[in-house]
Amino acid sequence: MGDANKIPVGIVGASGYGGVQLVRLLLDHPLLELVYLGGESTAGKAIGEIYPHLGHRVSLKVESVDLEVIGDRCQVVFLSLPNGLAYKMAPRLLEKGCKVLDLSADFRFSNLETYTSWYGVDRQDGAIASTAVYGLPELYRDRIVDAQLIGCPGCYPTASLLGIAPLLKQGLILSETAIIDAKSGTSGGGRQPPKTGMLLAEADNSFGAYGIGGRHRHTPEIEEICSDLAGHEVLMQFTPHLVPMVRGILATIYATMRDPGLVRDDLLTIYQAFYRNAPWVQVLPSGIYPQTKWACHTNLCYIGVEIDPRTGRVIVISAIDNLMKGQAGQAVQCLNIMMGWDETLGLPQLSFYP
Amino acid sequence: MGDANKIPVGIVGASGYGGVQLVRLLLDHPLLELVYLGGESTAGKAIGEIYPHLGHRVSLKVESVDLEVIGDRCQVVFLSLPNGLAYKMAPRLLEKGCKVLDLSADFRFSNLETYTSWYGVDRQDGAIASTAVYGLPELYRDRIVDAQLIGCPGCYPTASLLGIAPLLKQGLILSETAIIDAKSGTSGGGRQPPKTGMLLAEADNSFGAYGIGGRHRHTPEIEEICSDLAGHEVLMQFTPHLVPMVRGILATIYATMRDPGLVRDDLLTIYQAFYRNAPWVQVLPSGIYPQTKWACHTNLCYIGVEIDPRTGRVIVISAIDNLMKGQAGQAVQCLNIMMGWDETLGLPQLSFYP
Amino acid sequence: MGDANKIPVGIVGASGYGGVQLVRLLLDHPLLELVYLGGESTAGKAIGEIYPHLGHRVSLKVESVDLEVIGDRCQVVFLSLPNGLAYKMAPRLLEKGCKVLDLSADFRFSNLETYTSWYGVDRQDGAIASTAVYGLPELYRDRIVDAQLIGCPGCYPTASLLGIAPLLKQGLILSETAIIDAKSGTSGGGRQPPKTGMLLAEADNSFGAYGIGGRHRHTPEIEEICSDLAGHEVLMQFTPHLVPMVRGILATIYATMRDPGLVRDDLLTIYQAFYRNAPWVQVLPSGIYPQTKWACHTNLCYIGVEIDPRTGRVIVISAIDNLMKGQAGQAVQCLNIMMGWDETLGLPQLSFYP
Amino acid sequence: MGDANKIPVGIVGASGYGGVQLVRLLLDHPLLELVYLGGESTAGKAIGEIYPHLGHRVSLKVESVDLEVIGDRCQVVFLSLPNGLAYKMAPRLLEKGCKVLDLSADFRFSNLETYTSWYGVDRQDGAIASTAVYGLPELYRDRIVDAQLIGCPGCYPTASLLGIAPLLKQGLILSETAIIDAKSGTSGGGRQPPKTGMLLAEADNSFGAYGIGGRHRHTPEIEEICSDLAGHEVLMQFTPHLVPMVRGILATIYATMRDPGLVRDDLLTIYQAFYRNAPWVQVLPSGIYPQTKWACHTNLCYIGVEIDPRTGRVIVISAIDNLMKGQAGQAVQCLNIMMGWDETLGLPQLSFYP
Lengths: 354, 354, 354, 354
Hints:
homotetramer, alpha/beta, Rossmann fold, Dihydrodipicolinate Reductase, domain 2, 2 domains
């Protein structure tokens, strides 16, 4: 504490997986300084009591959440809490001049009715919510630059939208044929409270689907952005699956092409152009398709593109680390942009394979 | 050896994963007796030298492959070899009066040109190959009863076809909209020679697709049977993925319904009727979707059915153990039928969860 | 229900991992019939609601625990509950003529003070507790034959004691030099309530020790039996570790030999003689050491024996499935003995490798 | 290439797991520049063809190994090859003025007869081999400073020696009672050629020991250094085990204390003093014991210390990442010291949990 050149940052909800990623990332960030950790269930504990491997590097204690204190000490606040809490905290923090980046679903929806119908929480904060920007920099960089309040995307939507965006934006597919078959590691299920289905004894050596038939909460989030990209309402067939691994999301995206004459290299050219200025998206060479491990512990999204000329479909494979590009890393990327810094600042760039 | 009431059975290719499943299954089968193990690379070794956990139960040695010897000693022969070998062995074994069940791709195709174009092997054995029956009992039980030569299905086709068959057979879907997104454990990659990509260090905690865009060899196999079921040529979008687990396949199947007015319970009724006489297929109750672990070490296929009324699609989830219902277990099931026995005889019926 | 030739059996605590193993085992047992499932948190649910993969085979509902009802309907009762409950239930069940097999720690200790000091529960049931027999058949078969109440061993003690028993019983080692370094899969941590440290996201791809320095509750249990075997008090250095896998325990046992002139084959001869009449213990051939996977889903214990002539130590490796030979399987083995049946009856004999 | 302030570095054996770690580490090192990759089996390929996730960051091709070329282009050479190759290459590279860090066993032994008897390779290079320094900086920092040739320690020896060194150096234990029970992830088995036992299908969900009874090659390596630390010859009981995970080694070390009156805090004080100037060793607080995951992808070694007052033993738990502190990271740490830099330079300091 006390480095005058660094921006003081706080994290509310420091003990969950999103929180501990943020702690870890901020320790390496050259222009940010972690000065505050907040939480209720762990208040009073040093972070090293919760995560002993961090004990020799972080001496901060988790404090009971007090918005006045946070606002006084922090210029930037990450909210890493269960859904339905951030929308009550953000207004006061914004008033106190903080930039706020929320990792929950609270500020992801331009239409609060959608939020209410999926998350079961009534909202009266329309005015402030409407100032929130959806924190997917590859699509909304221009708006993030000027934002004070960011609704960071869900993990599945990040992988899905980065994979499908060029197709929708360029009108290359029949949007009603699009299907996203997505697969996630179990860290997406969170840490507290522990869920029976996420026990190693249950989830290991097994694979299954859930939220089938459009019943997963990330469906409306994906649809909102897809509709924005396509310029018309898009319904999306989205099916999440649980993979017996810790981190990583892979989205396999299918859609029928408008022009069946396109070949793989045409699409690669389009994707490379679309992501030319996106340092965190790597479009892979022809014939190469990503594995989630490649993105592990990095803020990268790897994308592979294929065509099946027999069926006229494009198949896109998109891979991220759900806790990094899918959550905490992307939040820091957004903050870099909000601060006018290089968006790669302080973020891990390559995995340690294997 | 020497139980006069048991049918003598041999396995060629005993040391691979298919072979060792067969060894294990035959030890429990009340009417079969394992009398011969053949293999080239392991010839001369006792099975207990290759798989020490079996040493106290099986004293057979692997013998160098000699078709005359096999034909003299066995009434039934399982061929569990790499593709392109069985079609050279089966004719002589059939001549000697053996029933032959082949676990490779050699006898799966009614059109040998398809086989040749995908497997790169020229075939001159059309007459005998044409007597082979595709060993998926739930679809071809009547033909299996009378067969002497069975081409056992691939693991992906088994999961895929059991999932999609009622839809195609009843004409419930627009077949050109069907997509099969399939996921398999790594035991499907075999044991010898070991593959770098299947090392635990590589495959664990990672997830990826392969054979994208109709490039996997199970695509033509699925299409042949789907076309037979539909009564017209069907192209299938099939994408396999590798899951960091040992066993299991899950197929997520999407298709647009011809009649968008169907509801979930309609489809469940149709599926239950279709599989009424299929003891190895379990259609799950409304709202329940299978995990691969449920089928592990059993010959069961669990199926869950869902509808997305917004998109008009049916989504079917099908789960099997790739080495059991997807390979060795199904072969024994076929043999049970060929012998006129109950098709559940000697096969494991329930997994040990978790 | 209603098979007059089968013994009616009940399980109290049916929804945990021990309970579901018992359910599974009883379905295959030729002389037992499952007629009752009891539990508090899941009372009123069918077993298929808790474990959907069993729904097509078991229609029993979990009932609220009523000892009179249990005693009226069951001749045998398995208690599969958290520590500190069984000792309150067993007396009434015994009075009603039931044979009782308890999977908790309640009846493992001949000295109730040891139980109280480690489990924090005061006990007034000394008279009945003293009739309990420690359910490790390879050591106490003679007493199990006549028992009405069995205290089934812990999972670590089973693997540890089977590995070290011949050494202590024959006085081959300096008992004060013995060290048991044991490793277990995470299913040993149970299902309800789920523990954070047992989440796949936490436990996968990690390995650690716990209960170091004699602080694990299985230490006094191991010491009690070791002292009985040795004929004098034995302290044991026991260290448990958590392995990122579902099932299995491996115990690596070190001890200095009294006679440094013994060679490996001497010890193998001694072990084979010791376990000559133990169908569930397999002493492996010279130079072969077990992996936990070999024992998976079976009631087997595989043992490998080695000597280091340089250091004068014997090293024994013992492997079991913690939920089978380490828990439910062993309980059924005990019951087989109590009933005068073959002790292998109805128990799975070989794993499905890999 | 071409940064005048950076030291040009080469890697021979770039495609294995050690090699790819070095590539990854050098990309982040502020004072080193990777200018050369050598290998035989992959010569001619770009690193991005072998490891596609690196393709966008590294454009170097693997070159056929030519010592003259390497010596001309590199000031520092890492040799990451199978045992028995480096000792032929190092002399010429040293002559050409390179600093050489060898990751194989070739330069780990001060007594070449030990090497020959364990590795089966006759050696005539005694003069040069005798200049090699064992690259464990926490023990031999002073000698590493001046070395031109480093024999980097094995992964098991690193974890074992860091755990036991304070005990031996201070004479706190009866060295003949020491036992090291070590456990490793499967990446220690290497990438090429792939080994059957390291397949995910084989190794996952299983746990076993190997090299039991002093038969593992790391035994003499550990004994050489232990003897040096103790000042007299030490025999060590060392047992390696394979854990179903990718990375990580945990060593559980047992020994009887000379002074049974020592308590845990005494030992912690001794350990903290011993490692006061060792930035890569973290002695954990009282009552905390490490998991391998804490060290994953870092160069850290976490150590926990416990005492069992009943048995008079100390138990030390030591955890590292086998490919980082156990291999490539430690090599870079050595190089930092050889160059007179801070030994933490360019090395990853904290894992991304979970």
